[in-house]
């Protein structure tokens, strides 16, 4: 039994008591094993897994260790597919198009490293691509003689139409792949992925959507998006255990696509290749059904809207408090970007050092991010957050900024 939620020993699902109305914010904190003596407004970075989902994972681990051979050979293949089906229902996708990967980085690697690039080919990405994905693209380009073409993406400012126009201007007959984020990491902007897919389809260019932040934060309809590939994390906004992500591939893009680890299923089909990549602990994937049940129990779409509303209130509160900009106010996401009034030079190293001070000295987890015009905070809002968290954050940031100026 874990607070409001009971883990079913038999099938690992979370049994929810339907009669209870769930109060969010401080009222639901006991459902998470987070250290509540610290302020956590950074769900977007690594997610945070509730106790009942961890219990479901533990139950699967117990079954695995009770008889590994039976588990790996007879149980795992089926329950992996059952969980792919549950995820597919949530994302409007067919189970046969979804494979599990450890994280979004691995999923993007699988796509980038499966494609054959040659000298002169171009990979188009945007100026706020996630660091690890940008590095993978550069690695692949460096090994093959392809080149990287960057679409500028303004922050703050910039709009969907300007982005699509800038993207279109960079497509040509050398373009072999386009990578677009669903929600950008350093700026929490929702990019117009449907329009980007239509543009690429018309130009005959494949497009990979990096949706690391999408599922559970905003509505994701994979059939409507209809990209060539969509990679998403479940361990962020769906609060699945760490190491739970997926790759969705359009049917005609599944041929020739390989996981980063080649194993027994090589050239035996998409599911064979990805469902078994060697012996590993796949229990994070098997807890997806429970994570989805938990998400729905907390409100599903209503939870996603509530989190976006709370992030919006937080963004306004902080921007008003500091008299600065709320950079992604027009974007309905559960992360708000607010510029902070630090003095002195701006660099990624300085932002990281200040972030470490927040964690170590102020017991507060909030990412600080360097942009050309200054250092910004990206605050997240999940079920366990409430407006008081951001009021507390404002006071903590005041002290950090004051002590930083004094040390200058
Ligand atoms: C846009 C984007 N892509 C990829 C990743 C990497 O996710 P992971 O660490 O789960 O691989 C992140 C992480 O925040 C991200 O924001």
Question: Mind explaining what this structure looks like?
Answer:
- The chain is an alpha/beta fold and 408 residues long.
- The protein has two domains: 69-292, 3-Layer(aba) Sandwich (Aspartate Aminotransferase, domain 2); 301-407, Aspartate Aminotransferase, domain 1 (Alpha-Beta Complex), CATH 3.90.1150.10.
- Helices cover 42% and strands 15% of the residues.
- It has 14 helices and 14 strands.
- It has helices at 43-46, 51-66, 68-91, 104-114, 131-144, 160-169, 193-203, 222-225, 270-275, 283-286, 288-297, 301-322, 348-362, 387-407, and strands spanning 5-7, 14-16, 39-40, 98-101, 122-126, 147-151, 175-181, 207-211, 229-233, 245-249, 335-339, 364-365, 368-371, 374-380.
- It has a seven-stranded mixed beta sheet with strand order 4-10-9-8-7-5-6, sandwiched between helices. It has a three-stranded antiparallel beta sheet with strand order 11-14-13.
- Strand 5, helix 5 (131-144) and strand 6 form a beta-alpha-beta unit.
- The longest helix is centred in the N-terminal third of the chain and has 24 residues, at 68-91.
- 46% of the residues are buried.
- Mean pLDDT is 95; it is low at 9-13.
- The structure holds pyridoxal-5'-phosphate (PLP).
- The site of pyridoxal-5'-phosphate (PLP) has 13 residues, from helix 4 and helix 5.
